[in-house]
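Let's practice the habit of predicting before peeking. Look at the sequence and jot down your guess about where helices and strands might fall. Then scroll down.
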Amino acid sequence: MAQKKMGKQTLQFSSAPVITSAAAVVGPKEGQGPLGDKYDMVCDDTYLGEKTWENAEQKMMQYSMELALEKRGLLPADLDFYLAGDLLNQIISANYTARFLNAPFLGLYGACSTMAEGLCLAGILLEGGFGERIGVSVSSHHDTAERQFRYPTELGAQRPMTAQWTVTGGGSCVLERIGTGVKLTHATIGKIKDMGVSNSNDLGSAMAPAALDTIKTHLEDLGRKVDDYDLIITGDLGIFGHTLLKELMQKEGYPVERLSDCGVLIYDPNQDTHSGGSGCGCSAVVLAAHLMEKLHKGEYQRIFFVGTGALLSPISVFQGETIPCIAHGVVLEAPSNE
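Done guessing? Here is the structure:
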């Protein structure tokens, strides 16, 4: 049997499951950003015709999964498993979407690393022969997240420059054991890193050390260099966190020219998001709308997609606890026959 675990934390998928479809649904602010013409659906407002922002977030997740399935000519009943998560208490967006899809469901919480975590677990299930087709979804919403983790939008609280703007969006992927699409070849499961940051308005600085640890471990596990990838892209460190990660990598002797971040890419500086984007939906919609396109076109042959998550809760923040962070990474390679 081929070795499936490489080094300390990296898994090798010898069968290379494929992402056969992906879709992204976003809010109006995201639609006005640099990637606005790449999303499958841009909503006119943040309510999507619903009574609450929470209901709107759930609909974005649902719509993204329905669109991803539609692209493949599939129905929810064709999924062997559905893996999903979000930022809200008890991952209600994922739970209610799974209720609608009626597929065997595994709920996930990795904060903003959830899409990378979902892809990793889907790869394990497919590699192990436990299914043929799996759906993975995540979502976030600026107003639901602000209300839960910081201050209600209606309060009009002043945001510091280190704060990021939680992305209003849902992203989904369909992965299959056999098929044509972007190949999932490796996954590196992260460790919790807590460097003593307790400021919930500076999550980029809290998450950067976790991103460094996962990137460094991944390269060591596989005996690879940064230059073996066209792109190493983190989930949503934002401007401050991305800058810090580059400094940390340079201190370790790594080049940083191929390093990027979804939270930096998703908004234009003129949109006044301060430190860029964050939230589960950030890396998910950038992956589904932008990175997948680059891989299909062959502009990227191999990327390392590293989802970063700050695993705080409203209670832990109010009690003055520091923020444990994690980063999970997956290697995605361009389709070989396109």
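How did you do? The CA atoms of residues 22 and 213 lie 28 Å apart.
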